[in-house]
Write a structure and sequence with these properties.
Radius of gyration: 28 Å
Structural class: mainly alpha
Strand order of the largest sheet: 4-3-8
Number of helices: 10
Order of helices and strands: HHEEEEEEEEHHHHHHHH
Largest sheet: 3 strands, antiparallel
Number of domains: 2
Distance between the termini: 83 Å
Shape: globular
Strand content: 5-15%
Number of strands: 8
Length: 381
């Protein structure tokens, strides 16, 4: 018993001594090289900001040669497609990862914060009072890293579910291979999302979109957690496009009862003279709700995925900032735990977007025939 107590005391003393020495070394380093710590913090901030932006080349990783101090980028270029007094198509390798000016047909272009601007041979950029570039911008139709991942995800989904459809057709409705993994997910979306929110008779016309948007968001979210450095669903333009599609489908498939509920929410039970003053407030709120619902969709997906990338990048950056085993170990442990949570969040955000889209479709396709039938049954009784 005494031996166990002695071992515990020695262990606590060892850890306390080690922590004290590490804290002294850390404070000594901070005192002697405070500027270096500040520079490392700024480098981490710049790296996180760069990670959240789209890019015109697909960089996998980079390293600095210790001998020459030259930075090397490992990846591959993507096609740049510009409209600037005509079509300009060239490889993003001309920019050398944003470090040089690209000359095309006598015009000069430069990348600044993931956007392409016109410039001169020296790469001059002018800024306004809030540090926004004022150089002219050509129309950019380039295949960026985000667009490349969208196309890759589209092809992946096409081949996966084409194979699933074939296995259903050839095996009497029984999935084979990878289809066995996706079959219960598809069944769940049909039964617990589409039918539950839209209805047994009207859910089929919405199923193609619901399945597509669920797997599209889920796959892109999972790609965002890989070392590829993609952040497609953290791009507000992508989430806006998805929410806009939901808005258009909801608007153009809305039934007469749906629009009547928006412009006449109190129904026919009250004469117009008694409810006109209520409608002055209520109807504008209902119309505003048409736009608030898709706006909430795009902000929720964008904010959650961006926040996850920022948190992970910050925790991993602490390893570089602290540069000691205590801070590095804690940062790595937290980053690993957050990564596991982000795997769940990636699926959860796809589920929430699909669920809310199905809920909006259910509102748009609602009818009140069942209420008339119930009234008829009550009158009969």
């Amino acid at each position: 018993m005494q031996r166990k107590t002695l071992v515990k005391l020695l262990s606590i003393l060892f850890l306390a001594t080690t922590f004290t020495m590490s804290a002294k070394d850390t404070s000594k380093d901070a005192a002697s090289s405070g500027d270096t710590r500040a520079e490392r913090k700024q480098q981490v901030k710049d790296y996180i900001a760069h990670h959240l932006l789209d890019s015109h080349d697909f960089g996998l990783f980079s390293y600095t040669d210790d001998a020459t101090k030259e930075k090397h980028h490992i990846g591959f270029p993507l096609p740049v497609i510009l409209w600037d007094d005509g079509l300009k198509v060239f490889s993003s390798s001309k920019f050398h990862h944003g470090e040089t000016v690209a000359e095309v047909d006598g015009n000069f272009y430069i990348i600044e914060h993931a956007k392409i601007y016109k410039t001169d041979a020296a790469g001059t950029i002018t800024y306004d009072d809030v540090h926004h570039a004022t150089n002219a911008k050509p129309l950019d139709f380039s295949i960026t890293k985000g667009v490349f991942m969208i196309l890759l995800t589209a092809f992946l989904m096409f081949f996966l579910f084409r194979g699933l459809a074939k296995s259903y057709a050839t095996n009497g409705g029984i999935a084979k291979g990878t289809g066995r993994f996706f079959e219960p997910i598809i069944t769940y979306i049909r039964d617990d999302i589409a039918i539950a929110n839209i209805g047994e008779t009207k859910h089929k016309k919405y199923m193609p979109f619901l399945l597509t948007v669920f797997f599209f968001i889920w796959f892109l979210n999972m790609f965002g957690l890989t070392p590829l450095g993609v952040n497609v669903t953290g791009n507000i333009a992508v989430t806006t496009a998805l929410a806009l599609i939901v808005f258009l489908i909801t608007t153009f498939t809305g039934t007469k009862d749906y629009w009547k509920h928006i412009f006449d929410p109190l129904g026919d039970g009250m004469p117009w003279a008694g409810k006109i003053f209520i409608y002055i407030i209520l109807v504008p709120i209902e119309i505003l709700g048409l736009f608030i619902k898709p706006f909430a969709l795009l902000i929720r997906l964008y904010a959650n995925m961006t926040a996850g990338h920022v948190v992970l990048g910050s925790l991993l950056g602490l390893i570089y900032i602290f540069q000691n085993w205590i801070g590095g170990s804690l940062s790595f442990g937290l980053a690993f735990a957050i990564s596991l949570i982000e795997i769940l969040v990636a699926l959860l955000q796809a589920y929430i977007f699909t669920m809310l889209a199905a809920l909006y479709f259910g509102f748009a396709s609602e009818t009140h025939e069942h209420e008339e039938e119930q009234d008829g049954e009550i009158a009969h009784l």
